[in-house]
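Problem 12. The chain below contains 101 residues. Write out its predicted structure in token notation.
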Amino acid sequence: MEIFLAPFITFILAVIIRTGKATWLIAGYNTLSKEKKDKYDARQLNRFISNLLFAMSALLFLLVVSITYNIVALAIVTGAIFIVVLFSALIYANTGNRFQK
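Solution.
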């Protein structure tokens, strides 16, 4: 049952970040100076990261289910979707100054 820890922990982190109480968990944002942090919309950034984590949690859960029940096709599709979502989110977050005020 330890295999179910990854999706569960990811889901819990998404909930915590969504509340806005854990922006220090967002890599890069936590190392900014106060002046630079004021240039960013922390609420919008928290919402984006939590949505990404919710999606990753769901995909990890599907991956765990596919591994548990030995459904190879589902594991391959889920892994591919995971990679596409991850790289799409990276491109979205790093282009267009989307999170600046």
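Discussion. The helical segments are 5-18, 34-37, 42-68, 72-93. Students who got a different answer should revisit the alignment rule from Section 12.3.
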